[in-house]
Amino acid sequence: MIREVIEETGCDAVVERLLGVDSRVIPAAVARAGTEHQNVGIFYRIRITGGRLRPEPDGETAEPVWTAIPDVARLRRSSLVEGWAPTGCVGDASSRDGPGGCRQAGVVISQR
After folding, report:
1. pTM above threshold 0.70
2. Rounded Cα gap, residues 31 and 24, in angstroms
3. Confidence check: pLDDT of 5 > 90
């Protein structure tokens, strides 16, 4: 998991905890390749410990960018994001801290 973060973003990180697993069928009508498929995403709360955000050299990640939480609503995203993206809270109620009980943060989005 950490190897993937480093490869795809250039950032070093530590896994803090599993947030959840999202599984859904992507209909052919909306799938990029035009073929129905199942998408399984495993989401972790991580803490960036160093490094510098950059594209993956010769890889699949074209442009990782920090995206402000209010801007995440306009992106395609997992249903796991729905719980905190509108409020700016990262993680669940047991992990919120900071002003208003939420940890304000950006999200790394890999766009192609």
Report:
1. no
2. 12
3. no
